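Q: Two folds, back to back.
A: First:
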Amino acid sequence: MFLCVSFSAYAQMEKPRFISSIEDSQWQLTSDSPILCRLEHVIPRFGKAVFTQAAGRKLALELVSTRRFASGLPVDLVSEPAGWQSLQPSQLMASLKTRAGDPVVKVPAAATQLAYADLRSGRQPGFSFSGDDAMLVSLSTVRFQTAEESFSACRARLHPLNFDDIRVSHIHFDANQEFPRLAEEKSAFNRMFAYLKIDDSISEILVTGHSDVMGEACVNERLSEGRAWYVYDLLVARGIDASMLRVDFAGESRPLSKGLKKESLAANRRVSVELRR
């Protein structure tokens, strides 16, 4: 919900204002892929505003400056009326603060949605800085609609999962077995395989075998090695380039779950597969 703010449009105009002119205003789609959509708007003499949406994540907005801010400067994200809406009041969307030495002001997800809707409706989101760096940094609506169509199309094509969601996968084994549970072997890496088709930044896949703590450590190390190589063969058979794979084995030294309960032991009898960029 918007809140009417006490400062008037005239008071805002008293601050130095940074905004792209009508002639120069551009919104540019700088990333269009199934893993990242990015829409940038240059603000002369200040920096730029950047909307991004990564696969599996919410829409984000950052104001990026060519300067570095002092700590704790108050910044109000306001909804400003366009010229033809001059009788309408400015409205507060969020109250933010700068971080020491950081050139970026990050906007929370809810306020990002408000700012995006603002631009779509023809209003102008603005960042009103107070204190020693008092200024108003405004996002122009000129040529936004055309670029927004391409940005929306990119967002519709985003993969449902983020790299961080898919980065590590596990497949589990019964006690003293070098072959994984059959049900898991059929489905354990399906999400990873689907993700690999759309992200060409993956440079290495680390396959690491593990065991529980039951039995002798030397036996568990050999067991974890056999498990790792079995999964290596499984991945190659499923079409993964062998040159991307690296095999490691940790025996019982890196448990996911500590203790001797049945659930903990079962969780630790695994092979982890980690995607690396």
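A: Second:
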Amino acid sequence: MNFNIALLRGDGIGPEIVDSAVAVLHKIGEKYGHTFNCTPYLIGGCAIDATGIPLPKETIDGCLASDSVLLGAVGGAVGHNKWDQMPPHLRPEKALLGIREALGLFTNLRPAKLYPALKGDCPLREDIVEKGFDIMMVRELTGGIYFGKRDRYQTEDRGEEATDLMAYSEQEIERIGRRAFELARLRRNKVSSVDKANVLETSRLWRSVMHRLAEEYSDVQYEDVLVDNCAMQLVRDPGQFDVVVTENMFGDILSDEASMVTGSIGLLPSASIGDTAPGLYEPIHGSAPDI
């Protein structure tokens, strides 16, 4: 079979990682009779340098016309790169939100598995490491506070004030919830839904939708976990988790924590997918501009 792949090498270590991943793809093609036609497009800081914006229309169009997308990294060292002073809508990271929205990628799948050969890199106690763990982090990717309305305004007595709106609909929650339950059926039949329902109204809606889905998927063990407790449990006993599903911002934070427990955020791949192709795949995480 022949596949068209859009390459988004990006910044930092991204080009090196993507080129290595392409070399692996071609070896796979040789072994199984596939061919991969790879076309590079600009994204992130390199796109700003070349076109003035982090996500050119040519990149979006090229990705939409491809069978799949391979992404390296965007941005540079926080506080120490030439794009830091760009306005928010022109920063390299804005390209990630834009490409997810343009491709309809509402599900981020990020495995956190401790491989025996890498046990020495795990920062946890030996008795925890010996039990091992294999977690699938399922993060909602196109809703929540990252895509909500933003505002900044002057108050009379408190100086400048800023707001970010977190919003979720039943439809957005249900579609990511179904992905989690279906994945659990392919794994160890357990879903841990992470929220902050003791404080946030969005989390109360999230929990009610998840409870309805849990009744539908009665063969899957289900539990609610508050986000602060989940952060603690990931370092206390990561082996208790199978599929962890949560909203966008919580997932952004917790998936990084889960990956670091394996030894390094740079060791783990991820997939961002929607209802139709193309999906977006990352061989590692982090631009690592100092390497």
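Q: And?
A: DSSP finds nine helices and twelve strands in the chain.
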